[in-house]
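Exercise 4. Each item below gives a protein and its sequence. For each, produce the structure-token representation.

Item: 4-hydroxy-tetrahydrodipicolinate synthase (Pseudoalteromonas translucida).
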Amino acid sequence: MIKNFNLDDYSVWTALVTPFNQNGTIDYGTLTTLVAEQAAANNAILLLGSTGEGLALTLKEQQAIVEHVCQLSPNVPLMVAVGGMNLKQQLAWVEYCNHLPIHSFLLGSPLYAKPGVIGQTHWFESLLNISKHPCMLYNVPGRSAVDIPVATIQNLQQHKNLWALKEASGNIAQFEAYRQAAPNLAIFSGDDALMPYFAQAGAKGLVSVAANAWPLQTHEFVQRSLSGQYPNLFTQWSSAISSLFTVANPIPVKVLMHLQGRLTSSYLRPPLTHLELTQTTCIEQANNTILSWH
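Answer:
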């Protein structure tokens, strides 16, 4: 049975990493523990995003992960990522997940093709129409090569299944343009480091990478940001966050979680590899700084 949650009650969505054993298989025991940690911090959970290496998994693996977490029935809402560039496949994925006890979808911009207003409106509208759950659109031009046009947001803003937008362009002006175009849309920062700025501009919360390594501390920082009480921690936070993005996400955060003893392996699916991170001093220093908050 699906648990009912008010999604607006959750200011942190953790883009959960996918833990692997050293041989590359999914480590379900560690996954169970990670889900429990996020639930204990009252962080909602996003599965199979880019931080979760969703597109490096087979369809059967994706299905198994979502089913496993659903069976755990954590006391926080679950969001499942929808990403790629084949609309037929994405529609089939949404239909599959519609029958599971999840609570939301993250709808990513189509990759590689670089569609404009009309193409993106059709893409998102097709997914929104078939979804049985509230949806968060995902603007991430660093991965999709193009922004979601403001006109596309305007076209979709009245859709009954459109609930939120994850803004990860790193551009405050883009955030403001979306907010003006769709004032009733909940907008979440997709950049950990920018959360204080986005909070001042009216963000509802954060879809976070850092919360994997620091569940409680990230939750606290987001709450402080939203209430305007972050200044004494901002310098520490900014420096710590920068250490998690020295190479492609989720390499640093998985290496750090392995050093923390929370992952049995820092294995990543190719083309990503922990060997890209040639030194760990920065993430270890960041870890010591952030953990000193509690």
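Check: The chain has a mean pLDDT of 95.
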